[in-house]
Write a structure and sequence with these properties.
By secondary structure, the chain is an alpha/beta fold. About 40% of the residues lie in helices and about 25% in strands. The chain is globular and about 40 Å long.
């Protein structure tokens, strides 16, 4: 399975080191790609995102209004996604969130919690949780 992280905006300090760290860890478990799209108004960002996503991809939007998951339930989703054999596109919007068209395209919406996170920090949190989910799926130890 290929995981594509589609993000609005380029990663910048102080988050770039953390993103690079979790990308290295995740590459041991999955084919991980990152697509960075320029910041614009949410409608333009949405158009740019939707142009990049293949028709047969499974899309998961990171959205404050989505379902919250524990690390274990996220690992269950990951196992399901891996079993489906489709590319997984995880989409993080810019400072103003995702366009409604992108949310409509998503088969799944996941929330990282009710607090508002800067979109660059959300990328770090998502990558860490993906790494943790892989460890859980593989039955390996991870830090609680």
């Amino acid at each position: 399975m290929r995981i594509v992280l589609a993000c609005v905006g380029k990663i910048r300090p102080p988050f770039e080191d953390d993103v690079a760290h979790y990308q290295r860890l995740l590459r041991r478990h999955a084919r991980l790609e990152t697509v960075e799209l320029p910041e614009a108004d949410p409608d333009r960002e949405g158009e740019a995102i939707l142009r990049r996503i293949p028709a047969d991809a499974y899309v998961c939007a990171i959205d404050r209004g989505g379902r919250e998951h524990s690390s274990e339930s996220l690992a269950g989703l990951l196992a399901d996604w891996r079993g489906a054999g489709r590319d997984l596109w995880l989409v993080i919007g810019g400072p103003f969130g995702l366009a409604e068209r992108v949310l409509d395209r998503a088969q799944e919406r996941i929330s990282l919690g009710q607090i508002t996170l800067p979109h660059q920090l959300a990328r770090v949190v998502l990558l860490e949780q993906l790494f943790r989910a892989h460890k859980i799926v593989l039955g390996q130890r991870y830090h609680y």
